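Why do we bother with holo predictions? Because pocket geometry can differ from the apo form. Keep that in mind while you read this record for glyceraldehyde-3-phosphate.
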Amino acid sequence: MARKKIIAGNWKMNKTPSEAVALVNELKPLVANEDVDVVFCVPAIDIIPAMEAAKGSNICIGAENMYFEESGAYTGEISPAMLTDAGVKYVVLGHSERREYFAETDETVNKKVLKAFEHGITPIICCGETLTQRKQGIYLDWIRMQIKIAFQNVTAEQAATAVIAYEPIWAIGTGETATSDQAEEVCGAIRACIREVYDEATAESIRIQYGGSVNAGNAAELFAKADIDGGLVGGASLKADFGKIVNYNK
Ligand SMILES: O=C[C@H](O)COP(=O)(O)O
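The structure, written out:
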């Protein structure tokens, strides 16, 4: 069975609650495309107002991060139960910005992935290499390692429902997109890695996104690739262009 594309916006640290409502209302009519799962991953404080604004539309509201403990003395963190109680179904985990600025590691990402599954939240698990790693030719090994650690103790049944976002760090927010062939090479290697760790059925069912300067002009070519099942979109998800990205196939 063909995998359904999943196109997610990652708002990062943008939009106040009232701005979030305005943006959801603006984009609602533009992102209607039944062929695609559409997710807006928004700052924690925007989740509830964005959810209200998205009611009756095809937009699913997701989170940008989550902690791996259930509750307790973890000032500033947000728990999985807080997300599920608000109706959240997807959470971005291990984004390179979380790794760079907030010291997240493959090990903490793995703990979060396990916790997300425990609570029925679908993780969008990010991986990707630096420009130096690409130039050194070690990027595929690096990404395979990231994936293997992120999926430790994850069952095949769970893994089949996960989303992986391949985001080369050199392409994030830089305007420099990976070519569709570069993106496909890595997304194909990720699927092969899932096949090796699990089995064919899991590899065929897991969805793999590309992220890094996706825009209305390059989305169709990227998403046409066999192993690219959609995108994780930063900057372009904050404007009307996101509608064109979601409707890449129209
Ligand atoms: O999560 C999204 C990515 O970091 C891509 O961001 P960008 O589309 O602004 O390059």
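The mean pLDDT is 97.
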